[in-house]
Design a protein that fits this description.
Elements (H helix, E strand, L loop, with lengths): L2 H6 L5 H15 L7 H30 L3 H27 L2 E3 L8 E9 L2 E5 L7 H12 L3 E5 L5 H14 L5 E3 L4 H8 L5 E5 L2 H12 L5 E4 L5 E4 L5 H12 L13 E5 L3 H16 L15 H12 L7 E3 L3 E2 L4 E2 L2 E4 L16 E7 L4 H7 L6 E5 L3 H10 L4 E4 L13 E2 L5 E2 L1 E2 L2 H6 L1 E9 L14 H12 L2 H8 L4
Helix pairs in contact: 2-7, 3-4, 3-6, 4-5, 9-10, 15-16
Length: 489
């Protein structure tokens, strides 16, 4: 950056953040974002943005993560396009007030639940899916009629820069803004009073976001992560199971995804067969030299490379590698790695891996897997491969997770009729489809009454007869009211 460009680039501090907030609040006061037409126009603008810039988006993600074009086109651009199209199809219905029944105590009356925008919201996104995880929440915020400020992750700088340029060009900047930067800029934004904050990332920063939000009583959605388990029964199609684990682990940004399988649990007897199947399918997918594969993303930066290296070098697991383990620090590449019989007190089992390492834990009976999972924090996703309906029902009933998938991995993410979000340490709140609209909407309760049917029993002076009638009305039921009128209650 030249000196002239540096001078031109203004510092974004608390004062700038406050000015931005005042400007957006003033603009929102016009009521423009509440209209169906404005919301639809912004969805169409996002679709146009993607149609005209897919190559630029692919290039940005290649620069940030060396992400394979297929993963970008399908899992980032494709999924965002689907989100926009669902909004265009369903928004008119979502915006309609919902008629609800009223109580006899308010007769005659009618009531409805009116969805209204929260106001001005902040979206802080993550680096691993920097296009999708930035704009998918923005889709929900716009669909709900809000003004929105997006703070992309500085760890994916090429995508962050592209987002700033594209949203400025295609979107209505009176209500939609991008703020680039690092910790200082994020801190300045968090000092403002937002109507909602949507954060995607890790639990450590999630706690910082929640603490900042608490000062203003701002509600939050926290999309975090956790150690998502995969339980494998011995009665499954082994080749398909191995492929689907590989797709969800290494086929999603080389394990750098919040819903990636974090570890596998299977029985001691079945583990060797599963390992052999995974080895075969990994070689089929990425060849004998996976560090050279163009179908695997690289590790995002040197800090994460060092973190993953530390997990592998732990004395408790260094001798447990049964496949992979190759590293190239100069290219920030780590090969798909399988580790068998990993101790549960090892470093790799103490934190979310977020990388291409897959520990396998063995148990004597598969039912023990439920206790292993439930002994830790609640994961964002839990996966089970089995044809045993009884065990499937037990697993679904007793394992708590943000989402669950039987006989596959990660695909629940693409079903817009399912809420996507965590529970406990893996997050709070949910989005996708109608759930995105709801995440940024206040459901306002409205009761309508006429001047007819005005009863004196609610007004002083209070008598025993009025007390009986009021108790009957509140309790509900015609019989109770008749008895009260007859003095029998």
């Amino acid at each position: 950056m030249s000196r002239e460009e540096s001078q031109k680039k203004k510092v974004f501090d608390a004062e700038a953040a406050s000015f931005l907030m005042k400007e957006l609040r003033g603009n929102v006061g016009s009521g423009t974002t509440r209209s169906y037409e404005w919301r639809v126009s912004q969805m169409k603008a996002l679709l146009k943005l993607m149609d005209e810039n897919e190559d630029h988006i692919v290039d940005a993600l290649r620069s940030d993560l060396d992400k394979p074009p297929l993963e970008t086109v399908v899992y980032e651009v494709g999924m965002l396009r689907n989100s926009c199209e669902v909004v265009l199809k369903e928004l008119k219905h979502w915006m309609m007030p919902e008629k609800v029944k009223t109580a006899i105590a308010t007769f005659p009356s009618s009531a409805e639940i009116v969805p209204e925008p929260l106001g001005v919201v902040l979206v802080i996104s993550a680096w691993n899916y920097p296009f999708l995880l930035s704009l998918d929440p923005v889709v929900g915020a716009i669909a709900a009629g809000n003004a929105v400020v997006l703070k992309p992750s500085e760890i994916s700088p090429a995508t962050s820069s592209l987002l700033a340029k594209l949203l400025e060009k295609y979107m209505d900047n009176s209500f939609i803004r991008v703020v680039e930067g690092e910790v200082d800029e994020t801190t300045a934004l968090l000092q403002q009073k937002w109507d909602k904050i949507f954060y995607t990332g890790n639990g450590r920063v999630g706690r910082i976001v929640m603490t900042a939000a608490a000062k203003h009583l701002t509600p939050v959605v926290l999309e975090l992560g956790g150690k998502s388990p995969v339980v494998v029964d011995s009665n499954v199609n082994l080749q398909v199971t191995a492929r689907r684990i590989i797709s969800g682990k290494w086929g999603l940004n080389n394990g750098q995804a919040c819903i990636s399988p974090d570890y596998v649990i299977t029985t001691k007897n079945y583990a060797p067969k599963l390992v052999d199947a995974l080895k075969t399918e990994l070689e089929n997918s990425y060849g004998k030299s996976p560090l050279e594969s163009k179908d695997l993303s690289r590790i995002v930066n040197s800090n994460h490379f060092a973190r993953l290296t530390k997990l592998l070098d732990d004395a408790k697991v260094s001798g447990k590698i049964v496949y992979g383990g190759e590293k190239d620090e100069s290219k920030l590449r780590i090969a798909p790695t399988l580790l068998l019989d990993v101790p549960r007190d090892s470093l790799i089992m103490g934190e979310e891996i977020f990388g291409p390492l897959l520990p396998i834990i063995t148990v004597n009976k598969l039912e023990e897997s439920i206790d292993v999972i439930n002994s830790g924090t609640k994961p964002l996703a839990a996966y089970l491969f089995t044809t045993d309906n009884k065990f499937k029902e037990q697993f679904v009933k007793t394992v708590s997770a943000g989402g669950m998938l039987v006989n596959d991995t990660a695909l629940h993410l693409v079903v817009h009729t399912l809420p996507f979000g965590g529970v406990g340490d893996s997050g709070t709140g949910a989005y996708h489809g109608k759930f995105s609209f709801d995440a940024f909407t206040h459901k306002k309760a409205v009761l309508y009454r006429s001047f007819m049917g005005d009863a004196s029993i609610r007004y002083p002076p209070y008598t025993n007869t009025k007390l009986r009638l009021m108790k009957a009305l509140i309790g509900g039921g015609i019989l109770n009211i008749i008895r009260a009128l007859l003095g029998r209650s």
